[in-house]
Write a structure and sequence with these properties.
- The chain is an alpha/beta fold.
- Helix content is 32%, strand content 29%.
- The protein has eleven helices and 14 strands.
- The strands form three sheets. It has a six-stranded mixed beta sheet, sandwiched between helices. The chain has a four-stranded antiparallel beta sheet with strand order 2-1-4-5.
- The longest helix has 16 residues.
- The two termini are 18 Å apart.
- The C terminus is likely disordered.
Length: 312
């Protein structure tokens, strides 16, 4: 028997009036993946998450959570999914424990205190257990939202910009806890504008751009497709402008340092150094480094057409 994927997104379209939020988005997320869903503002990420959570209906196509359609089998789908929203949404009339027990009751889990205690302890909420929600700091409210999304022990966890606006300590504890969930077999779907987080955490990444799928691949494959390498040079001397052939390759400047962007297939660095020496410059230091996910992201979301989409 073939087990269904954790999330199946099948030719999904969604529009708001004349705005096409999603255009034939089609891919799936395997069980146990740490999956990145990236894209610039307005790319359609939140719309897709809201469709997964049953808060918005697709105009065409369908979404399934572990084989359960989010419309026809919404009870099963929602019980298998936990979403940590980007916005701080909470009921200010309840304490932390009351909020978690109420959320647990929504899913029919009336004897769930042991797991609630574990979430409170793991997320550093022990001192706030009996504190009213509206009296908590923004960071503590974020921790409660994470606990609220996990209180019914969902197999698929969606983190929508979970580290936005939080301090470094909370960010580190959040990622430690997220790694633990992933190690225990949970499927994690992460959206973030901090691309270094996605690069450090995610196995596979989908990039949305203007409602379409611009890329879907492993992190390693995405990084490998970038056609350039970067060279950081620290120079001394040389009152003349940079030679035109070198100037065209400069992608950044910082004092006596320049960053050059060279195509992987061209062995240009020797010629660059010769041209700089001829112009009177002395090379003090040189470092080469591979592109980051941010470089690939910018390359894909500028003007490149969307990739051919595949179901898995």
């Amino acid at each position: 028997m073939i087990m269904p994927p954790a999330v199946s997104i099948e030719h999904v379209h969604k529009h708001y009036g004349a705005v096409q939020a999603l255009r034939d988005v089609d891919f799936c997320i395997a069980r146990g993946e740490f999956f990145g869903l990236l894209g610039p503002n307005g790319a359609g990420k939140s719309t897709l998450i809201n469709i997964m959570a049953g808060l918005v209906r697709a105009a065409q196509g369908r979404v399934c959570i572990l084989g359960h359609d989010v419309v026809r089998g919404y009870r099963q789908a929602r019980s298998l999914l936990g979403v940590v929203p980007q916005e701080l949404v909470y009921d200010g009339f309840f304490t932390v424990r009351e909020m978690l027990r109420l959320q647990s009751g929504y899913f029919g889990m009336t004897r769930n205190d042991a797991w609630i205690d574990e979430l409170i302890d793991t997320l550093g909420l022990s001192a706030q257990t009996h504190t009213n929600m509206q009296k908590l700091s923004g960071g503590m409210k974020r921790r409660v939202l994470i606990a609220q999304a996990l209180v019914h022990k969902p197999q698929v966890v969606v983190l929508d910009e979970p580290s936005a606006g939080v301090d470094t300590e909370l960010r580190q504890s959040l990622w430690e806890f997220t790694r633990r969930l992933h190690h225990e077999g949970h499927t994690i779907v992460l959206t973030t504008h901090y691309l270094e987080e996605a690069e450090a955490l995610c196995d596979r990444i989908a990039i949305l751009d203007r409602g379409k799928l611009a890329a879907l691949d492993s992190k390693a494959a995405l990084l490998a497709r970038h056609p350039y390498r970067l060279f950081l040079l620290r120079l001394a001397g040389g009152d003349a402008p940079l030679p035109p052939a070198v100037e065209r390759l400069v992608s950044a400047r910082n004092g006596d340092q320049i960053t050059l962007r060279l195509h992987r297939l061209d062995d240009q660095i020797g010629g660059v150094l010769d041209a700089l020496r001829a112009a009177g410059y002395t090379l003090l230091d040189l470092h080469s480094f591979e592109p980051r996910l941010e470089d690939v992201f910018l390359e894909l979301t500028s003007s490149r057409p969307p990739v051919e989409q595949h179901p898995c």
